[in-house]
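From the shared-data thread, chain only:
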Amino acid sequence: MQAQVSIKAMFEPKEIDPLRFCKLAQVWEADASLSGFPRLASEFTQAQLFCRVAGRIDKHEGCVLHVEVRGEADLTCQRCLGVLTHDIAIERDVYLVRNEAELERRDADPELSGDVILMGAKLNLIELVEDEVLLGLPLTPMHAPGVCVIPVDFI
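Structure, as tokens:
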């Protein structure tokens, strides 16, 4: 049985019970502008993101969230201060653990191909997506050498 929540454009932060979400193999999707992601607004001048989070239980009876984020975002080039379009293409598993011991065990497992985080009673999906996008940003966004156009008033 799969439940799906689809939210368009602007939406409120979406909190879930992560254990229930994974056990029921629920799916949350959102197609939203930058205004739906408050922490990303300070990094991007403009963005449109499609997000999908699907819960499941893995072979070790652990909770897993498969996170996909696709879209384009406009960053500010640190060389010329012009607009730099950044493609966002994230697809990864986030393993949820109940305690520190399980966190250390899972973190050391070479078979895991995703992030491992502590699971609380609630999980905000907007914040999860923001975390994944922020972790994927370049440290210093810049156009490729020779691409920047320096305005005449700088010369």
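Residues 59 and 151 are 57 Å apart (CA to CA).
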